[in-house]
Amino acid sequence: MEYEPVIGLEVHAQLLTKSKLFCACSTDFGGEPNTNVCPVCLGLPGSLPVLNEQAVTFAVQAGLALGCTIHEKSIFARKNYFYPDLPKGYQISQFEEPIATHGHLDIDVDGVSKRVGITRAHMEEDAGKNVHGVAGDSLVDLNRAGTPLCEIVGEPDLRSSAEAAAYLRAMRDLLVFVGVNDGNLEEGSFRCDANVSIRPVGTEKLGTRCELKNINSFKFVQRAIDAEIIRQTAILDAGGKVKQETRSFDPDTGLTHTLRAKDDAHDYRYFPEPDLPPLRVTAAFIAAQRAGLHELPVAVRKRWVETLGLTAATAQTLSQHPQYVTFFETVCQSFDQPVKVANFVANEVLRGAKLHGLAATFTVTPAQVAELLLLVESGEISGKQAKEVFAALEGTARTARSVVDERGLKVVSDSAALEVLCQRLIDGFPSQAASVRAGKKALIGFFMGQVMKETGGAANPKLVSDIFERLLGGAP
Amino acid sequence: MSEVLDLPIPEQAACVARGEISALALTERALGRMEAHGGLHAFLYVAREAALAAAAAVDQKRARGEPLGKLCGVPIAIKDALCTRDAPTTCASKLLTRRNASGTAGSDADSGWRPPYDATVVARLRAADAVLVGKTNMDEFAMGSSGENSAFGPMLNPWDSTRTAGGSSGGSAVAVAAGMAAGSLGSDTGGSIRQPAALCGVVGVKPSYGRVSRYGLVAFASSLDQVGPFARDARSAARLLEVISGADGHDSTCADLPVGAYEAACDKPVKGLRIGIPEEYFGAGLDPAVASSVRAAISALESEGCSVHPVALPHTRHGIATYYIVATAEASSNLARFDGVRFGLRLEPPRSNLETMYGKTRNAGFGAEVKRRILLGTYVLSSGYYDAYYRKAQKTRTLIKQDFDRAFETVDAIAAPTSPSPAFKFGDKGSDPLAMYLADIYTLPASLAGIAGLSVPCAMTRANDSQPALPVGLQLLAPAFEEERLFTLAAAVERLTAPNGPARPPLG
Asked: Which pTM value belongs to this model?
């Protein structure tokens, strides 16, 4: 039988606050174990949480970017379970009344766009980390405990692993764009669980789902889901039943395996967190966040394609990161030919660009690029020379003009001098010249090549072509 | 010369400030009494060295002519549920002790957990130049009404050592009643300050929820817990409350409202105040001697110009059920952190698995009542039971609060007994936890409503063959953040029922 996968993703995105969600400890990654801790995030008896306002601002911004309804009143709740990396024995999260609900995320797979529903987005604190196997002991590092997370639950609207991967990328790009998350899967600041079930094509009833935990790369999300679809298909084809359970993907074997059966599922005993009053954000605050929100990638791409004439592919490339957008638009301010700017930035500049979360480093500045493109446009240098100048500019503070001057790269546009050269070549290759005169126009390319060779590619090609036309074509 | 340690707190502080007695001498006096009355087992830990050092520091401050705090040199005892950075904090539980050499839980507070920080109220006492003399005994994790749930043995009632001091803040009440400290702090979740205050014959205040910071109070039931003072008279309690009250950046549930002039309120006339009498608090189960003492005190207030009105608090009968769902639910979660991983007790065979460590540690570390409440609370929050228990209890809690809101539309304060009986004998409530739960029947509703409450001694029972004279407490309740009214009324009750000052227990 043929089956259709039904997939929904839960994303855990770290909110980029300097301090933790309920205390003043730093959220810095990579410190000595148990150094960024205090009575609150250690869960010491008597300590109490105090909500970080910046985390609320970021969560509201994320919710707005996802088109969610932001609720003026939301409730923190305790999710109770025992584990050594969870110091209080409960995680402070949001349950019955989250801060944001009913949003959507637009994705694009092979040129087909699709709108995926967002069920909810809420704030919660991260757990610490258990470190196993040190001399047979298990150690606990609570530096990460209390780091603010935004959990974003998507509707089961995805129908393939490719859609899931596209959703995850779009989510990452969006959150990085808004400036609330650094999109760093390696350091775990952007994590994902996937709920996967399959059903016979054409049917409505959902199959039994399995939850795939902690998929920590874009590559794995697709592989993990594909592996799970294959596993579930095999079970159903053999007449079996899929058991609801939590599973883990092993990238080494490419298979998923059981973590927890449903019978072992936790009863989290959620109840409203009595240590925190209901969170209230005013309509004015929400409106201000909405007004201050960065233009989202979808809107940026639409504007570029419709008003600047960029291709969808180029627009996609340049809207991957907010710093790319800023770079491109800054160059455009000095050189108002967006298509040319876009192609140059996408093909040359981005090759040397490096992303560090919300920050990006480029090998050149927008001003250097703008000047370079102006030199090409005015005919002072050729497109080919522009690449050479660009290479010379990378990692320096030089101007494009100084490189052109130093290397004598100016295009030769002196028509008298060029005509002398052209005539000498015609005289030097009489049989080829005769062929051209006899109608073999294609051989003009041979003469063009000779000119470029003689001038080191610096001759103005349009001018040279005109001269040959005149010297070889016009005469009977 | 009268004993300075027996004067009201404002006078003790004034004596120290004027140099009539050094803080060191006053502290030594308190430490001496703590030793003399050690048999009452009011203290789990005597902070002798730290107290003497703090007292010496106050004296040096005075010698340098620096301004002194409102509690300068005054010896204060602290319930062992409050974190102190220089003294162990155990909540009278073996779980907050270290494992000893024989592989079992610690047997006293000396092996107790040392917090790295002070509770906000403790820091405020220190900032006011109080001298903290020790940590007081209590029911384990503040769960109990007799002190019998202390893992280290109960405290004794100074009026009759065969009787309980009440609980859970029994040690703090005994310390003050026996004159070992001028004042003390306790915590009240369902009556844990007011009830032992009544049984020991001292003033005990349960402030409105949000009046006092809970930061550093080891949580029992977060939506009910409040820290409050004990003292031998209303004015002394008022000064303590003024020092510890007010907004705290570490506690989001602590209100940013101005602190009242509680001490000044003690001098205000009661004339014209309207007092409500809820008949629900005078029904079956109330000891006749308590009933007549409380009614006599109310009549005395009437003679001073108060008007007395019946009020209805019809949902009172749901108080116990509601409380034991809400409080145990929160406790089951609050006590999850006592898992043996980071602090306190850990019992495990080497390289045992995690569940074994949790199980052994919590089984050996928690007493029977704590376990009972964790089980109850876990049950009422469980999937499938939440709506029937926890959610319903939240609704009845609202109804109880609305009872008080309605009553306070027509009266300024409510007067009632604090405890259905005077101090009861050890073992009197037998092994039936429900009988013990009834001891708090008159104090639970105010906790659920979050309003202000206070217990003030209003009479001594007549001694007879079966019992000596025992104190009776009058409970006064006021709307949230109207503590001033309580102090005005309590000071009047003291003037009217004990014109020669508070009664003293018959200690050697």
From this structure: 0.90
